[in-house]
DNA sequence: AATGAATGAGCATTCATTCAT
DNA sequence: TATGAATGAATGCTCATTCAT
């Protein structure tokens, strides 16, 4: 019936993961119910538990999705010849998401903020991993550019992204992304 | 019986506000129950409602507390002669809070992130106001320094604070605050 | 200070009783809070308990008020020479209250209906007493008219009043009172 | 396992509706907790919300039950040849319920009285509809009897029912129903 | 694998009543 | 007497999770 190679269930799992990623970004973890996710994925609530044992499993899947998305994006950027251009393209990609950022913030960032408040550190560690993944790739570009303090520079760039996303959200103004994005590009050019 | 000049109830109201501010910062809005706040303030749960009609009223009170704290801090900074020095002192104050930031993020920032996810815009507007309050004061300093693009510069500075707080939290590393704080000071000096 | 002969507190007690009677009629017993009554009487909530030990005491006071009002009305009607005319004047008085009846029903009747649902029979007995008080006076008029079955006739008349009040409320139509009132008058004339 | 043709859930929904109707009649809306209804239906409290989203939904269901019961009764009465006999049979049915009426009043009437006290008009409108449903059927019988003022006569008959139910309750005397019922039958015969 | 239906712990909120002064 | 404040037991409702089929 399915014209895909994958097993039947895998598709539904992916659908749930995608739904979780989207809804959790929009509503936050605590304000999102399993029913919300199930509805978005068009899957009966009871069935969700066949694929994810707990709500936290779905949050973890969303984190995985973010990680995969990041990987895919950086892989694509790797096709660009110059490391500086790769970073500039990364900033451009961020700015492109300005409308979403102004409404719901950086998907990874806001999720991390929420998970960081938890007393038990399980998912927050996972969230930290995703942030570090981005940080590492950025640092690699700075290293390729010949900078010794690549880690510091990476921190500054990613921090800049998080900051501008937060400010765009707080001020409900996408143009914050444009302005700060331009500044980051200028900074990259001046390095 | 009381050695204070203030009315009896006002003290408890302040106690509740302070408790709310602290607990909401630590646990986030959604994960915090009224019982949590009541317990922190050492007030019976039922009594909370004598002072605050709803949970959201407590959140709003916490926002007010942030605003007042900000006012007090900037008032103190105003005593410093040079606007550039004022801003550098502001950054220093941020860095001083590094342990807290690394554990729970920027109090105003994380609260704003959470409130921004709400569908109905009431408290998120209030949160935006607090962010803007800081932004305005910072912009005034840049204006005093003779910069025409004070608003942009203010955005960059505050955005830098939000970004470094978020990164410190994600990486669970207070030193992020030290490093990025130093960079901001350098940036201020170079302006 | 007070230019009345009565003790200071008595006035407040009357004020509370009047407020209770009015608010209980409008909102019903269960939907009325002590605060509602206190506010209507312009008395601090805590002070209510000095005059009435429990909420039920206030309900009982309202029943007493109804009884007193009834007494006063029938006393006034007693001034009319003919018993038949007294009854017709009673019906006219009911019809005069048509707007209130269409909105909130008969004060005594609706209160009785609500109290009758209680498992413990204390206040409902009291309510029954008030209804009986009216019934007795009406029966006396029928006796004076020379009817042997005065009790039955009284039941019919008062039942008619209760029925038309309920219907006026259900249909939200004061004219129900006018029409049924006219019928009762015709019935009285035909006896 | 089930020897019924109906879906599993429908049966429980009916059970809850029946329980709500019964308990609400006995205790009144405000004095009835969801736990009361759940217990009467032998359903866990949390599960009630699977079938009814709010307590008011349950009240509405009870109103629907009354409407359905009324429909069923009048349908049965329609089998009787003469309209006057139909009405007399209706009165007889009312009198048959005298024990219940003397204890808890007319199910529809007392519910309406309580709902009418609400400030917001949603359920009270629904309650009015049920009263009107009875009124309409009765009026149709009077029309069939050749009366031009069928609406007025219907009002008088139903009003008589409400009045006698209320009085039976207030006096805690089922015989009130018998006596007033007989009077109504006499009135019908005399028309 | 799929699904409608449980289940019960938890939470915000209300309110009659009491207390301290 | 008067009053603001305190108290705690309820109550409606939500929701993650489990169950039965």
TrEMBL record, chains A, B, C, D:
Coiled coil: none annotated. Gene3D superfamilies: Tetracycline Repressor, domain 2 (1.10.357.10). Residues 10-70 form the HTH tetR-type domain. Keywords: DNA-binding, Transcription, Transcription regulation. It holds the Pfam family TetR_N. GO terms for molecular function: DNA binding. Residues 33-52 bind DNA. This is TetR family transcriptional regulator. It comes from Actinorhabdospora filicis.
């Amino acid at each position: 019936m399915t014209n895909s190679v994958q097993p039947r269930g895998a598709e539904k799992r992916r659908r749930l993961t995608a739904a979780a990623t989207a809804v959790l970004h929009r509503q936050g973890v605590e304000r999102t119910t399993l029913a919300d996710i199930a509805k978005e994925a068009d899957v009966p609530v009871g069935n969700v538990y066949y694929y994810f044992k707990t709500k936290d499993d779905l949050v973890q899947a969303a984190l995985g999705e973010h990680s995969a998305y990041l990987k895919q994006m950086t892989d694509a950027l790797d096709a660009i010849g110059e490391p500086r251009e790769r970073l500039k393209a990364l900033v451009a990609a961020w700015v492109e998401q300005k409308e979403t950022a102004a409404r719901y913030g950086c998907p990874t960032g806001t999720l991390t903020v929420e998970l960081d408040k938890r007393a038990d550190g399980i998912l927050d560690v996972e969230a930290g991993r995703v942030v570090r993944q981005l940080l590492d790739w950025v640092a690699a570009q700075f290293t390729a550019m010949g900078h010794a303090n690549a880690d510091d520079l990476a921190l500054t760039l990613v921090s800049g992204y998080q900051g501008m996303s937060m400010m765009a959200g707080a001020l409900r103004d996408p143009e914050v992304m444009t302005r700060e994005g331009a500044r980051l590009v200028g900074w990259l050019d001046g390095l």
